[in-house]
Specification:
7 helices; six-stranded mixed beta sheet; RibonucZ/Hydroxyglut_hydro; binds the ligand N[C@@H](CCC(=O)N[C@@H](CSS)C(=O)NCC(=O)O)C(=O)O; globular; alpha/beta; 266 residues; Metallo-beta-lactamase, Chain A
């Protein structure tokens, strides 16, 4: 009888230890899972300029940022942000675009409280100016700013190390890159930006560009290092390729640049 009692006590103790360690593991799993699951990401598209806009949010605090919004879609984007219960804190640009008018100005009027953001070297007016190594925080997340001049002086890449993703604007396009034939463009600067600030990220990081003209949506650092037909070459070869692109000027450039110098139409 005593032996039986001892055995019950023993198994109860084991069960208790088992139960507690299980709870501990579950709590740890839950918090890891919660961290992964409370990051909101949505890629949006403008078919006219083939521009990608990105909405990022913290599903717990509801703070959100939007990257490279397009004026014509400000109502769509503001509607989505409201519907999903987000509080837009920053309407951000990767650079002063030449092919479309940014939606940051209109989003500020549709979503009071949102602040416009752009790289300081762009020369554009905005509520917040960023420089290399700055951090943009929203909820429990942050974007590290990497100055990546070349397409324009003020180009920046936004990196979310926690999620292993980066928003490259026009600096790096999928199997391509931004042109360097206007707006302070410099092929040498762009090549160095990509090789020093983007290709040095881990190979598995997913890269999201501001445009794609073929319907592709994302790439990785490893893929671009291997397959980018321009940037996988030497600097000399890259400069020659860029000199011979012969692209027509963007149709909207004369309207877009003056509007984007003040971060869009209010
Ligand atoms: N046809 C479009 C403009 C296309 C263009 O020039 N895209 C730019 C980015 S927007 S300034 C670019 O850098 N392209 C690089 C490339 O290799 O295509 C228009 O008229 O808007």
């Amino acid at each position: 009888m005593l032996r039986q009692f001892k055995s019950v006590v023993h198994s109860a103790k084991v069960a208790k230890v088992f139960l507690w360690s299980n709870i501990d593991i579950n709590i740890r799993l839950m918090s890891t899972k919660m961290d992964r699951n409370n990051f909101f990401f949505r890629q949006l598209f403008d078919p006219v300029s083939c521009t990608y806009t990105y909405l990022l949010g913290d599903l717990t605090t509801r703070d959100a940022v939007i990257i490279d919004p397009v004026l014509e879609h400000a109502e769509r984007d503001a509607g989505l942000i409201k519907e999903l219960g987000f509080n837009l804190i920053y309407a951000m640009n990767t650079h002063m675009h030449a092919d479309h008018i940014t939606g940051t100005g209109k989003l500020k009027s549709l979503l009071p409280g949102a602040r416009s953001v752009i790289g300081k070297a762009s020369g554009a007016t905005a509520d917040v100016h960023l420089a290399d190594a700055d951090l943009v925080k929203f909820g429990g997340y942050q974007l590290s700013v990497a100055a990546t001049p070349g397409h324009t002086n003020g180009c920046v890449t936004y990196i979310c190390h926690e999620q292993g993703i980066a928003f490259t604007g026009d600096t790096l396009l999928i199997r391509g890159c931004g042109r360097t034939d206007f707006q302070e463009g410099s092929s040498e600067a762009l090549y160095k930006s990509v090789h020093q600030k983007i290709f040095t990220l881990p190979d598995h990081y997913t890269l999201y560009p501001a445009h794609d003209y073929k319907g592709l949506t994302a790439t990785t650092v490893g893929e671009e290092k291997k397959y980018n037909p321009r940037l996988s070459k030497s600097l000399g070869e890259f400069i020659k390729i860029m000199e011979n692109l012969n692209l027509p000027y963007p149709k909207m450039i004369d309207k877009a640049l003056p509007a984007n110098r003040v971060c869009g139409i209010y």
